[in-house]
Write a structure and sequence with these properties.
Blueprint lengths: L2 H25 L15 H8 L3 H13 L1
Helix pairs in contact: 1-3, 2-3
Length: 67
């Protein structure tokens, strides 16, 4: 396996893991804590909870809501 192939594999694994973190946070027991009074997701609270960057959380929320 070349270095580039290894990097691609690691990137896909990191993306899969971060998607799983976001989805489990918004579908878990404490999902109400991550909602604003307007009904939108509180991206800052989700990013603090999952220890992911807010852009990553926004990306995975957008993908989840499209499905």
């Amino acid at each position: 396996m070349t270095r580039a192939e290894s990097a691609r594999r690691n990137t896909k694994a990191r993306e899969r893991r971060s998607r799983q973190l976001v989805v489990s946070a918004i579908t878990g027991m404490y999902q109400d804590e991550f909602k604003k009074p307007t009904g939108k997701w509180n991206i800052k609270a989700l990013s603090d909870f999952t220890h992911l960057h807010r852009d990553t959380v926004s990306k995975h929320l957008r993908i989840y809501e499209e499905k």
